[in-house]
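INTERNAL TRANSFER SHEET
From: sequence group
To: structure group
Subject: CheW-like domain-containing protein

Please process the attached sequence and return the structure record in the designated field. Keep the field labels unchanged so the import script can parse them.
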Amino acid sequence: MKDQEILHTRAAQLAIPLQQQSSDPTQVVLLIEVASETYALPAKQIETVRALGTLTRLPGVGSVISGMITLQGHVLSVLDLAALLGNTPDEQAGYIVVYQHAGQRVALKVREAREVVSIPLQLSRPPNLRPGLVGVWEARITLLDLDTLLEDFSHQSTFHQTGGASGIL
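Return from structure group:
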């Protein structure tokens, strides 16, 4: 009898019409976890997501630059996204998201890459939201503007200003 109840419940759920699609404009994003927080990155500028692998550490570059990695024959800077957001570096980060920024590829170190979803273009924007943070979706996911974050970092970086290794970003 229990099997019949389960089948009846499933049939009733399947008989409910699908909700109509919203006509509000959306954007496709990748949900990532950084230092136990969930963020969204615009998918249109993401090239690939993969396991972190072995980094070549660079001495004296600060906490944001985790090192360098070779990917498909190209050397990429690996930035710790937690540190870029002003937090302590995320030692549990196990993935990189390769992002196109100003004509260059940058690898961002994240704890986890979760899923690709569509979110509304118009998000709630709490007061005093810092540059690089676009808005909040579903009260818990912050959409990032990586171009702004990376521009701010490259302007503030003494590594970049001193010419220590030009082209790091």
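Handover comment: The radius of gyration is 20 Å. The beta strands are 26-34, 37-42, 46-51, 65-71, 74-80, 95-101, 104-110, 112-120, 133-137, 141-144.
Transfer complete.
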